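Hi R.,

Quick one: here's the Transmembrane 4 L six family member 4 sequence you asked about.
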Amino acid sequence: MCSGSFAKCLGITLIPLSLACVLCNILLFFPGGTSVDSENITDEVWYFGGILGSGVLMIFPALVFLGLKNNDCCGCCGNESCGRRFAMLSSLLFAAVGVLGGGYSVIISVLAINYGPRCLVVIEGTEQWGTPFLDGSYLSNTSLWSECLKPDGVVSWHLSLFSVLLVMGVIQVALCAVQVVNGLLGALCGDCCSIFMCVGFCLGDLV
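And here's the predicted structure, written out as tokens:
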């Protein structure tokens, strides 16, 4: 497969993943599917891992990857192949942005899963909002989930959505990392060139 066509496939895959991440982050503003005061929303939700990291920052590389197949960069001294190689090389920068965005989302998701949700708990006989699972113990002991009185189902809501963000963030990082390799191959060996052809071509140049 040509490196430009492969990049387009990556871009097509990244867009729905980005939209899904944005949706997950938005849903996290409604813990348990209910509306609560902004100060009672888990801190990690406000870091916008899904909206900014896996969403906005991922849209840019996705759009660039989509256009690589037909982008000759206006040629290069009249050489279309040279122009396409430059376009593939420039895609590395956007791939790096995607890795950073997806990595940011992954880190926020890991922290959020470890700390657990913010909910209404009983502390010294008084109901108040807090984060009772900062040590991550609730992950291995589901009986602790009942400590969250409200919103209903907030623990499973929090854990499920951040787990989805974590998995999709890892996938996005992997896809952008693949494009780094694909972009290098496209820049070194041209747009339509298999990995074996590219290795042979590069070895031939070295010899």
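The chain has a mean pLDDT of 85.

Cheers,
M.
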